[in-house]
Amino acid sequence: LPASLPQSSILLDSLRVLEWDQLCDIVASFSGTSLGKQAAKEQLWDLNRSYDDSVRLLQETNAAIEMHKYGAMLDFSAIDVSLVDACMRCARRGSPVSGNEAVGLLGMLKFAKSLQLNVKAAVREDSNWSAKFMPLSELILELVISHPLMKSLEQLVDEDGSVKDSASSNLRQARQQVQLFEKRLFQLLESIIRNKTEEATVVLGRNQSLRDYYWEGLRNVIEPLSAVPLNDELQQARASVAKAEEEVLLSITKKIQMDLNDIESVFEIMIRIDMINARAQYSLSFGGAFPDLYLPQDEDGAVTAEASTKNAYNQRKWTIYLPRAYHPLLLQKYRQSLKMAEKDLSNAKAEIRRRKLGGSTNRKKESHLDLPYLEMQISKLKEALPVPFDILVPRSTRVVVITGPNTGGKTICLKTFGLAAMMAKSGLYILASESASVPWFDFVLADIGDEQSLSQSLSTFSGHLKQISEMKSLSTMRSLVLLDEVGAGTNPTEGAAFGMSLLEAFSDADSALLTIATTHHSELKALKYMNPAFENACMEFDELNLKPTYRILWGIPGRSNAINIAERLGLPGEILVRAREVYGTAGAGINEAIDMERFKQSHHQNVEEAQRYQGLVKEVGESIASSEKRIAEHAMKERYRVAQEMWKSAASARSVIHKEFRSVVRNSSRSAPAPPPSRTEEEEIWAATSKNGNAAPTWLSDEKGGVVKVGDMVEVRGVKNGKAAKVVELDVSKQEVVVEAGFLKMKLRLGDVV
Description:
By secondary structure, the protein is α/β, with parallel strands linked by helices. It contains 21 helices and 19 strands. It has helices spanning 8-18, 20-28, 34-44, 51-70, 81-93, 99-125, 128-132, 136-141, 147-156, 169-195, 209-213, 228-258, 260-285, 328-357, 371-383, 410-425, 460-474, 492-506, 562-568, 573-671, 681-689, and strands at 201-204, 221-224, 292-299, 302-308, 318-325, 389-394, 399-403, 437-439, 444-447, 480-483, 514-519, 534-542, 547-554, 699-701, 707-709, 713-714, 725-731, 736-741, 744-749. The relative contact order is 0.07. Residues 479-495 form the DNA mismatch repair proteins mutS family domain. Residues 164-191 form a coiled coil. Keywords: ATP-binding, Coiled coil, DNA-binding, Hydrolase, Nucleotide-binding, RNA-binding, rRNA-binding.
């Protein structure tokens, strides 16, 4: 823990009772490397973190999750960090690296290159991925990876860490000499054994080559004198091999030294991304949600936001909004139990199959092979999924008082919220629904449990007092305070008075941003009706089955169920009557207040339900109106389309007729007398085709040969978006037309219409 934090012991104690250390271990277990695990734990335990730091951590986690969704993230267990670290230390000292260390370094560089190529491929496919992968894409794309070094390592060292023969000519020659001398020595020994030659011998020690080569595993071996010179030459050849290998490895060290800064940078970034990936994999594995983490500020007693990860805080209704929030450790324990039960079932099935194949006829029933029982256990576990909490705290609330029976889930609810606040602050997704919203707390302070401070000879109550006193002095307007069983451990009357006074102190505007307390004292339930900064909640209890449901009900104080439970359990009636008399009017008043609160909540729920249905009716009406409008628009478009098609067909037919007509006129004009020069072309055509020279003309032709006749639909030049007009009259001599558009008639020159 950073030494700069004041009262560090109280912060550590708070996280200990929340079991933050266990959650950190679970998250770190998703790292692929040992250094990644260590880095993940250190990062999660770094409490000296600003709001901007928390936002950055969440962005990193979200980027890693997006990379998983695309398929760009890799498994970091492929990196052997111990070998890479040892390799870099050798390079710093200038000593030869080992072959395995060189292979480890090559593996890391290849891994980093693959990660870089994955990101580049995603960005080429869609440039939006670059923004989704930020800030990891920036880290990965800026990695400097030496391709010449990678190529050299591949050329010099084999996958098993041995130096390749091709690494140097000296090494190749030395290894050939070793093979030659080993072959000769083997042939010599075979010849001595085969010919049963009697000759002088010497006893070799433990480290001689013959023992290792020919009689492996013996403590001492006997060497023929004739083999001594050959064996000496073999040892010299092997020494030459070792020297040549060292020269190659030293050359690798020098190559690494040239790129050492870049290598160290790649190594550090791989560890950092492994740490980030652990947070992402945990969040994905448990179905977490990206939280709306906002920086709170107090305005007139209500919590608002200075900044937010989702920029949705302007219309914020809640200080805390955690629908369906799970306790992460309970969920982890549940998954482990289910996984173990499924493994037991799988092992049992495998064992039964093995025995059948082996012909075993043992009919003795063994519990670990009872398949129906094991399947029933799995079925029970699947039905016993931990119950999520809906933690919903309005903006105006500073203190929440939670009541309910023992083992009803009050303490688990406190821990769930405390862990959720720490998870969001530390860059983890919250195990809740997608719309989760939580403020950034500078300190999460918790007093949970009834452990006595034996080292200071303090009783339970005294220990709580000391703890709470330190929490009160440390808390700020951005702190979260969690108090379990406030006022417990002493005389009930005094405990209730102390609890009321303490919670009122925490409700002050200059105290903690939010305080959540559990209690059994009925008097604390009434604080809501005296101070608007208070809110009640209770853990639901199934009175019919006499067991808690572990669901939290907001706005309603918990009702005392002890006497009712005693009655259902068969306690004598006279005892119950006397208990109710002693409980008296005070208890009745509390119960009456509870009934009124339940009625009020029921009324609000009915109003909200009615408003919801009213909204649905409105939406349906708007949908129907929109559909009718779309249908009308579609019908109009269809009519227009059909009209256009008919017009095009008519225009095409008219064009054919006009061409044929002009051809007839031209042919008849050749055989007719030439018209007087004073007559126009239209008059000439009309005279040639009309039986009555005084009849009104029915068509005109313009300068481009286009034909306009009575009944044609035309448009007027220069009029934008104008309707089509109908030709009703022609004036051949003036080259004019009379058109009609609705109730309007106008005379236009032939060139003004189309």
